[in-house]
Amino acid sequence: MPADARYGEYEQYMRRLAARSRRPDHLYLSETAATARLRRAVRAVILADDDRVLLCRFSFPHPAVPTGATVVWAAPGGGIEPGELPLAALRRDLHEETGLVIDDDPPHVWHQEVAAPGQADGYDGVINDYFLVRTTCFVPRGALSDDELAAEHISGMQWWRHADIAGYGGTDLFSPRDIVTPLAALIAGDIPGTPVMLGL
Fold first, then answer.
1. Model-wide pTM > 0.70
2. Domain 3-198 in CATH 3.90.79.10
3. Residue 132: which of 157, 164, 100 has the closest Cα?
4. CA–CA separation, 130 vs 114, rounded Å?
5. Which residues sit opposite 71 in a β-bridge?
6. How far apart are CA 32 and CA 141, in angstroms?
7. Which of 50, 74, 80, 133 fits a disulfide with 175 by CB distance 3.0 to 4.6 angstroms?
């Protein structure tokens, strides 16, 4: 099947997901004006064998950092380029940012859509699809140099324990904001049959 046809199927799948769960305080893809600029990205929830999760420290003005914030800790990954399939984008970003190479298709565990002014600088909102990657713990060192990572507004990477995220009292944000709840389910081995819809 041609890549553009598969991407069209992916778009239809994402629209069906959005229709399953709606919140009145957020606009979803099917409700957004055709001119809206939504940043589409894929991310990996990388869980090590000791149940720590690898998060990237994104600094403003990265699109993951909302206007008014300075830092967001989020799963590695990035934007889907025009004509690129989501899993191809995920593999590319993981190799560039962390050095991790994945061959199998990881399970699609979370879906996040937020259309709100100021949510992502230069965009009307974000669409993030998260895939679960289980691995042994490793030192993240991708193909990008430190200067290239800085140009992508990635200012660090860290393995986080669930309890440390839950008890964090600093000024940095996490994405999603309530990452502790869906992360706890994944750590417990509860892999959803269909992606869990996430809020901001």
1. yes
2. yes
3. 100
4. 14
5. 59
6. 38
7. 74
Give the C-alpha separation, 182 to 146, whole Å: 31
Residues 6+ apart with CB under 8 A from 2: none
Long-range CB pairs of 16-22 (<8 Å, 24+ gap) are: 17/111, 17/194, 17/195, 17/197, 18/111, 18/113, 20/194, 20/197, 21/197
Domain ranges of the chain: 3-198
Q: How far is CA 116 from CA 25, 56, 65, in A?
A: 9, 23, 13
Six-digit token string for 15: 């629209």
pLDDT digit string (tens) for the chain, length 200 residues: 454 444 455 555 544 444 443 333 333 334 444 557 888 999 999 999 999 999 999 887 666 666 777 899 999 999 999 999 999 999 999 999 999 999 999 999 999 998 866 555 567 788 999 999 999 999 999 999 999 998 888 999 999 999 999 999 998 999 999 999 999 999 999 999 999 999 87
Residues 6+ apart with CB under 8 A from 50: 137
Closest CA to 81 of 92, 73, 70, 72: 92
